Amino acid sequence: MKILYINHYAGSPRHGMEFRPYYLAREWVKAGHEVHMLAADYSHLRQHNPQLSSNYADQDIDGIRYTWCKTPRYEGNGLKRVINIFRFLGRVMGLSGRYLKQWRPDVVIASSTYPLDTVPAAFIAGKTGARLVYEVHDLWPLTPVEVGGMSPKHPFIRLLQWAEDFGYRKADTVVSMLPCAKDYMTEHGMAPEKYVVIPNGVDVAEWQGASEPLPAEHRMRLAELKADKRFIVGYAGGHGLANALDFLLQAASQLPQDSGVHLVLVGDGPDKAALVSQAQALGLNNVSFLPSIPKRAVPAFLAECDALYIGWRKLPIYRFGINPNKLFDYLMAGKPVLHSVEAGNDMVLDAGAGISVAAEDPAAIADALQRLAALTPNQRGRMGAAGKAYVLAKHDYAVLAKRFLQAMEG
C-alpha cells in the first residue's frame, strides 16, 4: 500500500518532535508499505530543522521518504505562524502533480494539528481514488478559542471551523487521539462509524535499548539526595503554563519538614525562571531544578526516581480526553505516578499505576506525595509494574500502527 502522510510538524530522531508520524510510518515500512511524509522545513517543535536551498528537498529516513517544504520562520502564535501554515499548504498543492502522475497513493492522511490540510489531502485523494484519513491531534479551532481566548467570530477561526467540518464529512476514516471526542465530531458532520481512537504511544524498542547516561550535574545531585535518604519525585519535560508546576511547588511548601520528599524538576521552558523565583519566594529547600536532557537520557533519569509527577491545569478542553507522551515514558519506567488531573480519561487510574488527585489542588498533591512516600517499595513496585504492562498492551507503536492500518483499509 502507498501511504501519503501530510503532517506539517512531522519530526524524526534526527530532528526532534513530533515523533508520532515517524514511529507509525516506520512500522508501516517494516510491514512492506511505502510511505511518503510531507512536512514543513520549519517547525517550532523540532530541535533541528532541515536546511533547504530550494522549495523542496527529499530525504530518506529509515525507509520513509520525507519531502521537506520550504516555509518561513515564525515565533509564537501570531500572523507569521499563519503565513507559515498557508505557505506549507501552497507547497503541498504544488507537489500534487507528483502524486497524481508519478506516485499515486492508496491512502492520504491529513494530520497537521490544524485542519486546513484536509483540503489538499481531499483534492489528492479525490483525483487518485485514494482513501482519505483525517487524523485529529487536538480539536481546532476549539483549542485556540477555549485555551487561547480567540473569538469564535474571528475570520481565521471561522475558516478553521469550516475546514474541520469539511474533514469530518469528506474523510473515509477519522482517527482521533482523543478518546472522548466522538459526540463532538458527530455534531460537526462526522458519520459515527468513521470514528477510530488510536492514541499516542511509545517506542518499546527504544526503551529496551541502551539509554544515554545522565550528565554529571544530574548524577551528582541525585546521588546527594539518595545519600540523604530522600524520597525523590521526578518530573521530566517542559516548564510551561500547561504543565501546572506552580501547583506542585505550592504543594511542596505544604509538606512537613520531616516528610523526606524531594522534587527534582528536569527540563526547560518559558516559565522556568518564574518557577525558580516562586520556589525561592516560598523558601523551598525540597526542590531541585536541573537543565533539560536528551530524549535518550530520560530513561536513566526516571530510573533514579522513586515516583514521578505529571499535572494539568483545569481546562474545559480536556473533557475530550488527554494523550500525553510524557506519561507513556513514565509508565514504561515502571515507577508509580502522581497524576493531578481533571479530564475525560485518566490512564494512571485505569492502569492502577499510581495516585490521581484533582487538578490545581496543592493540598491534594501534598497529601498524595506523602502517601506515596509512606508506601513500601513492594507496593510502589506493583504500581509501576501495572503501568508498564498497561503501556505494552495498549500503547506500543507496533500495536498502534497495526490498528491504524486496519482503520485505513476500512
From TrEMBL:
It comes from the Bacteria. It holds the Pfam family Glyco_trans_1_4. Residues 16-201 form the Glycosyltransferase subfamily 4-like N-terminal domain. InterPro entries: Glyco_trans_4-like_N (IPR028098). PANTHER family: GLYCOSYLTRANSFERASE, GLYCOSYLTRANSFERASE (GROUP I). This is Glycosyltransferase WbuB. The gene is wlbE.
